[in-house]
Amino acid sequence: MSTTIKAFGTEASDAPLKQLPIERRNLTPHDVQIEILYCGVCHSDLHQARGEWHNTVYPCVPGHEIVGRITAVGDHVTKFKVGDLAGVGCMVDSCRECESCKEGLEQYCENGIEGTYNSPDKYLGGVTYGGYSEKVVVDENYVLHVPENLDLAAVAPLLCAGITTYSPLRHWNVGPGKKVGIAGIGGLGHMGVKLAKAMGAHVVVITTSPSKIEDAKRLGADEVIISKDPEQMQKHRGTLDFLLDCISAEHDINTYISLVKRDGALALVGAPENPVPIAAFSLIMGRKSFAGSAIGGIAETQEMLDFCGQHNITSDIELINIDYINEAYERLLKGDVKYRFVIDMASLKNLII
């Protein structure tokens, strides 16, 4: 059984996003129903909508940075009640049985997570649909509690950009006494700066753009390195305990690895389109590590939200209406946003299907 609701999505890789009716399942015993108040716009939404990862099933309704309020709960739900604020990130289920799932690392589920959108829908068939919609129905075990004290619209990007940067910072023990680099100041990087600073680290931003120096310091950076300046890069060689690389554009990763100390690590969370060439000696001569990291498990994502509530951390956003989404995608391609678009989903209610 299901219910038809309003959504915004696309029916083809070269088609604009528009109003679409979609089906949401009726509640099962462990489900909660969430009225979506805000949904962040992630760069991956654009990639999926336009078929750039070659795995999109159409129609596609993007959105995996969801904040809303619970309007109904299943008979066996124990973690939430009607009226609670709630969040949904990049996944809505996993196998729950593999080693990763049992360790609370559902994002690395060995049988594959069920993504919030564009994943096989085991209840209704077809694929899952994301947060560019009126409401969503999700198993309570994959839903997050949202701090009441934060601006809800600015919380939405924490469900992807926030946890994507928080998880590696925690894994590599960022904190007081650590000198931490954040490469790239965009949707991911600006969150990395805020979180690393709140963790007590000395934060060094690496950017190609001198125009971002002032903003990097506003976000919490203690120092800023202009990566196009060879003298600055040389001066900071071997000075960082950890470097979080948030750059999705093509860049020379070896130059950034040179900034890391002996036994330090560079973790990549940006996703350059092409394979990244690594010079062996950039790692060997210093026993350095080159790593990657994906979002976080449900428990760690909740930890991140609680941390942000305690430290009053949210994303820097531009709030838009749903019918602006195609223009927002074009601006996103140009990097013309500081630093995340968030959709006010109340604007969807006024649209007529």
Topology (SSEs and partners):
Elements: E1 2-9, E2 18-25, E3 31-41, H1 43-49, E4 66-73, E5 85-88, E6 91-93, H2 99-102, E7 114-115, E8 135-139, E9 144-145, H3 152-155, H4 161-171, E10 179-183, H5 189-198, E11 202-207, H6 213-219, E12 223-226, H7 230-235, E13 240-245, H8 253-257, E14 260-268, H9 280-284, E15 289-292, H10 298-311, E16 317-321, H11 325-333, E17 340-344, H12 346-349
Parallel strand pairs: 10-11, 10-13, 11-12, 13-14, 14-15, 16-17
Antiparallel strand pairs: 1-2, 3-4, 3-8, 3-17, 4-5, 5-9, 6-7
Main attributes of the structure:
Quinone Oxidoreductase, Chain A, domain 1, 12 helices, single chain, 2 domains, alpha/beta, Rossmann fold, 353 residues, 7-stranded mixed beta sheet, 6-stranded parallel beta sheet
